[in-house]
Specification:
By secondary structure, the protein is an alpha+beta fold. 44% of the residues lie in helices and 23% in strands. The chain contains 5 helices and 6 strands; from the N terminus they run H-E-H-E-E-H-H-E-H-E-E. A 6-stranded antiparallel beta sheet has the order 1-5-6-3-2-4, sandwiched between helices. A hairpin with a 2-residue loop joins strand 5 and strand 6. Helix 3 packs across helix 4. The chain is globular and about 50 Å long.
């Protein structure tokens, strides 16, 4: 069975943002610096099969710009900081909303908090900790010339 986070992330990037996402980033994509991050926290009642945690989504600047341009229907030159933040937040919401039922079952209820921007230094530290084994799921995607990294705690 494929990784639920990979399934939710690739389908969200492709259907919501019209960006092709691959689960095997190239060396050039892996070298691209992450520049923007959001966190979506969620809760849940364990009696219903739910649990609490957070999803962190970090992307390169070109991916954030493409998200904003494609999702908001603006030219990339008009994808300002607010548009990039809002588009990335919506991607975080949709990924989170799609992955949680895959993990907890359809009966589980997961209230989602609004996405919050995360300073990139904080996001990078969290991603490093997640790669070391603190995280439940971790996915790195090649997206166009850039990349996206997602962790679910």
């Amino acid at each position: 069975m494929p990784c639920p986070l990979l399934t939710a992330a690739t389908s969200t990037f492709e259907s919501l943002a019209l960006l092709f996402a691959e689960d095997a980033p190239t060396d050039a994509q892996r070298a691209a610096p992450l520049a923007h991050a959001v966190r979506v926290t969620f809760g849940g009642d364990p009696a219903d099969g739910a649990f609490a945690g957070a999803l962190l989504v970090a992307v390169t600047d070109d991916v954030a710009t493409a998200l904003a341009a494609n999702m908001l229907g603006v030219a990339p030159a008009h994808a300002d900081a607010r548009a990039r933040r809002d588009a990335l937040g919506e991607v975080g919401n949709v990924v989170c909303g799609n992955v949680l039922p895959l993990l907890g079952g359809r009966a589980a209820v997961f209230p989602l908090a609004a996405p919050t921007p995360v300073p990139i230094a904080e996001a990078l530290a969290e991603l490093d900790a997640g790669v070391a084994g603190v995280t439940a799921l971790h996915v790195a995607l090649g997206v166009d010339a850039g990349r996206a990294v997602l962790t679910l705690h």
